[in-house]
Write a structure and sequence with these properties.
Residues 5-10, 13-17, 122-126, 137-143 and 147-167 have low confidence and may be disordered. The strands form 2 sheets. This protein has a 5-stranded mixed β-sheet with strand order 2-8-7-4-5. Helix content is 29%, strand content 19%. By secondary structure, it is α/β, with parallel strands linked by helices. It has 2 domains: 1-21 and 163-187; 22-156, Immunoglobulin-like (Sandwich), CATH 2.60.40. α1 (2-18) packs antiparallel against α5. The longest helix has 21 residues, at 166-186. The protein has helices at 2-18, 38-42, 68-73, 105-109, 166-186; strands at 23-25, 47-48, 52-56, 63-66, 81-83, 87-91, 96-101, 113-119. It is elongated. It comes from Cinnamomum micranthum f. kanehirae. Residues 135-149 have a biased composition (Polar residues).
């Protein structure tokens, strides 16, 4: 029975250590906005596969994932993906350089663009966040609606899933399983 306990404990510990995605709110409290110093915000951050970028912005803005050339020229016409819903989560699902711009060219030229370097590989990553809906018609009612306040991003909405509290959720599961096993051994 001790071997079974050791085996389950090592599996649980392995899960706790591998399921640690980070959700980054782009621009922190300033959000995805032309007044935010995005080059300073990204400095020193270590993005890995499985992390999520959460863009919060007013109805004056949008977010588009684009190619390097489109990033350099602030062109959003052939975007990889684009959103205008005011609360966009983009999972970082592959390693490499990722480029994001505001679809309004003058905003992009004014500094509203972001380049992130994603480290890691997909084999060791946890499940990513769901993709944002394609139009405002499909936005679930539980999400906050965008505002017209340029410097007032929407508050982050915590998730009940593993993405926001992966380590804590796995600790609860691990201790529940271990407690059940110990209870069964005592009987």
């Amino acid at each position: 029975m001790a071997k079974l306990f050791l085996f389950l404990a090592s599996i649980g510990l392995g899960l706790v250590l591998t399921c640690t995605a980070t959700v980054y709110t782009v621009g922190d409290t300033s959000g995805w906005d032309i007044s935010t110093d995005l080059s300073s915000w990204v400095a020193g951050k270590n993005f890995t596969v499985g992390d999520v970028l959460m863009f919060q912005y007013s109805s004056l803005h949008s977010v588009s994932e684009v190619s390097r050339d489109a990033y350099d020229n602030c062109v959003a016409t052939n975007a990889i993906q684009s959103s205008r819903d005011g609360n966009t989560s983009i999972p970082l699902s592959a390693p490499g350089q990722k480029y994001f711009i505001c679809g309004t060219m003058s905003h992009c030229l004014g500094g509203m663009r972001l380049q992130v370097s994603v480290n890691g590989n997909q084999a060791s990553s946890p499940v990513g966040a769901p993709l944002a809906p394609e139009s405002n018609d499909q936005v679930p009612t539980s999400l906050p609606r965008p505002t017209n306040n340029v410097n007032n991003p929407l508050p982050a909405t915590p998730s009940a899933g593993f993405l926001f509290h992966a380590r804590e959720s796995l600790h609860v599961i691990l201790f529940s399983v271990l407690g059940t096993i110990l209870w069964m051994v005592m009987i």
